[in-house]
Write a sequence for this structure.
């Protein structure tokens, strides 16, 4: 893991804070372990972890005006300097418009500004500490710093309503540690904090402005090309070059690297056969920048991009995608590697792993992804986020009705009717979209609170049923049905408290709001995946989650994105705009196989281990579930009952995360005396969750 951590104090001088660390409540001096100081008192900033030299840049105007950019940023030092001068006047948005994925921190006198991203893949956290405010790009270091306990209200909301911002708000799994919402920045002035949005919000009073589809797709192409070029322009790195133990009898350099679990030098990409990974692989291979191995390492033909395809031997159904991947890999600029995996990399097969900053559904898939990424490159492109950024959330049909664009509903509704085979589908979908368009945000959240209180989780089945269920402001999560009544009541209280906050409403149309929430939730899970499946010295790049790519995708007209096959058509046009036209037949076709098949097979294979895991679960100690209820659900799902597998994945991953957190012995801070870790007293059995829920509502 890599993060930055800083501090803004009320002190005007060096008292209490300096380059050696910060003064805690008990008078001890603490500082983050494994850190490099970027600037010192009175508001110090550290970079923690295995950052590459080119990933940490600091540009100074003078002793009190400077900017730090951590991550992959396509801006030059001169552009950073100009950005610093502009930020002195209070402008923030331009700090988030450079190509790449990064976190920008600006210090102007005693004012410190930390910008989060739009998707939520690079979040910012903060907490009060020692009379000021500590901030970081990871929540666990701050939880260690204040010895935070678990926030059970957040954990309950994470299971009951994971895609409802009103339920999660700014909370984290750690009590007292807060999250800056996507599209916002944290501004600190001598310890005092403020959260400010830097992205304009469209008005609900008038229809959305008409956008030219061709120009919007061109903007997506330009943003993707700039995002890929920013990675190709960065310095190349040889993984572990400084720790290579030297020749080993019978082993060449590649074998030694594989034995140490290190990636191949150079640039690589996933090549699943789908349109997102294929687009990035072809862009990276076709742009100037020598996308292959580092000069002087490997073979003389080392200018090819390493394309990695995962072939699942345990679950069939993706043969067509594998064929398309092979056809794409025939490009002479690609070097194709097929990684096979059997039952040993099925979901739930490996319940051991590293502790991540937060829980996430990806924990049960980590071994599967790690097997693929181990064959990847030091810099590896992934297509994560393309579906959430480009596809139309079903609730966007209500947006079209609000903008009086009914004729654009014909094709998507006709596609649903064809899939369902019922002539009643158009009327049902139109009625649900119209009802959502006429429902206020407050009413939608209150309806969810009522559903949770009354335990109403029945939803129609099939593609049409999923679309109808999504045509609402907020809906229960797939794991909500297995929570205790007390936990559901607590989340209901949180939702009722949220609608009573000043300025109620997201300021967006329902479809836009649901799409942004889904992207934020997915980006948070991808962040968990990167930490759980991390390969040493490897960097994963997800350009579809970059700020500029997200902005370009949001500017796509609703009428374009709701059409069937829109994502594949948009990405095909993106490739054609860069001169890539030779795509295999069926490129962009939806997969006939589902990840549910792998999840169900893995669950059946790991049934005994999961029964043991939920013998005495920590979730039951926390009052969130009853162990016998979860065990019954796991047995039913393994036997083939039609239960929501995503909900079971949420339960298992949260239980795994809690066990890893409580078995942890280290801490992110050192000093005199040493700091205690987060959750120092473990999980205390809960009594009266509604009372604690009332306390949780106070934060709203």
């Amino acid at each position: 893991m890599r993060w930055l951590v800083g501090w803004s104090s009320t002190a005007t001088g060096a008292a209490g804070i300096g380059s050696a660390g910060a003064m805690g409540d008990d008078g001890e001096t603490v500082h983050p372990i494994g850190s490099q100081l970027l600037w010192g008192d009175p508001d110090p900033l550290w970079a923690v972890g295995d950052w590459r030299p080119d990933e940490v840049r600091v540009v100074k105007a003078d002793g009190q005006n400077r900017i730090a950019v951590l991550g992959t940023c396509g801006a030059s030092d001169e552009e950073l300097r100009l950005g610093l001068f502009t930020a002195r006047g209070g402008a923030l948005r331009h700090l988030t418009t450079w190509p790449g994925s990064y976190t920008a921190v600006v210090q102007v006198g005693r004012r410190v500004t930390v910008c989060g991203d739009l998707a939520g893949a690079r979040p910012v956290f903060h907490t009060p500490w020692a009379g000021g405010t500590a901030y970081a790009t990871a929540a666990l270091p701050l939880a260690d710093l204040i010895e935070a306990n678990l926030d059970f209200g957040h954990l309950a909301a994470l299971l009951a309503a994971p895609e409802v911002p009103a339920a999660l708000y700014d909370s984290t799994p750690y009590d007292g540690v807060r999250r800056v919402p996507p599209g916002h920045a944290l501004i600190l002035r001598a310890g005092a904090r403020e959260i400010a949005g830097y992205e304009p919000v469209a008005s609900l009073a008038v229809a959305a402005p008409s956008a030219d589809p061709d120009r919007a797709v061109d903007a997506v192409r330009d943003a993707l090309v700039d995002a890929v070029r920013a990675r190709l322009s960065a310095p190349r790195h040889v993984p572990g070059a400084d720790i290579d133990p030297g020749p080993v009898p019978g082993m060449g350099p590649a074998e030694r690297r594989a034995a140490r679990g290190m990636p191949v030098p150079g640039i690589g990409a996933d090549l699943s056969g789908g349109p997102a990974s294929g687009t990035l692989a072809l862009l990276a291979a076709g742009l100037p920048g020598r996308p292959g191995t580092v000069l002087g390492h490997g073979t003389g033909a080392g200018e090819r991009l390493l394309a990695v395809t995962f072939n699942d031997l345990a679950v069939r159904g993706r043969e067509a995608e594998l064929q398309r991947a092979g056809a794409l890999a025939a490009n002479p600029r690609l070097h194709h590697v097929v990684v096979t995996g059997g039952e040993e990399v099925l979901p739930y097969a490996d319940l051991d792993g590293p502790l991540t900053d937060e829980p996430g559904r990806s924990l049960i898939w980590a071994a599967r992804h790690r097997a693929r990424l181990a064959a990847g490159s030091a810099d590896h492109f992934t297509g994560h986020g393309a579906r959430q950024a480009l596809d139309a959330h079903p609730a966007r049909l209500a947006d079209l009705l609000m903008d009086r664009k009914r004729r654009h509903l014909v094709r998507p509704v006709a596609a649903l009717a064809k899939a369902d085979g019922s002539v009643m589908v158009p009327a049902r979908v139109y009625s649900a979209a119209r009802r959502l368009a006429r429902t206020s945000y407050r009413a939608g959240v209150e309806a969810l609170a009522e559903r949770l209180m009354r335990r109403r989780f029945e939803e129609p089945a099939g593609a049409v049923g999923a679309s109808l269920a999504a045509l609402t402001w907020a809906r229960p999560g797939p794991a909500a049905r297995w929570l205790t009544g007390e936990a559901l009541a607590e989340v209901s209280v949180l939702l009722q408290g949220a609608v009573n906050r000043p300025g109620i409403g997201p300021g967006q149309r329902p479809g836009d709001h649901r799409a942004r929430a889904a992207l934020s939730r997915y980006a948070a899970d991808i962040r968990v995946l990167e930490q759980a499946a991390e390969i040493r010295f490897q960097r994963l790049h997800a350009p579809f989650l970059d700020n500029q790519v997200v902005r370009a995708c949001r500017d796509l007209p609703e009428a374009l994105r709701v059409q069937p096959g829109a994502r594949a058509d948009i990405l095909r046009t993106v490739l054609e705009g860069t001169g890539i036209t030779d795509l295999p037949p069926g490129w962009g076709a939806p997969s006939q196989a589902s990840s549910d098949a792998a999840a169900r097979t893995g669950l059946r294979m790991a049934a005994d281990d999961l029964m043991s895991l939920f013998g005495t679960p920590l979730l039951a100690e926390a009052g969130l579930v009853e162990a016998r209820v979860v065990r019954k659900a796991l047995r039913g799902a393994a036997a083939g009952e039609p239960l929501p597998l995503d909900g079971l994945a949420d339960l298992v991953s949260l239980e795994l995360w809690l066990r890893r957190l409580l078995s942890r012995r280290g801490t992110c801070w050192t000093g005199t005396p040493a700091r205690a870790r987060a959750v120092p007293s473990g999980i205390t059995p809960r009594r009266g969750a509604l009372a604690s829920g009332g306390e949780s509502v106070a934060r709203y």
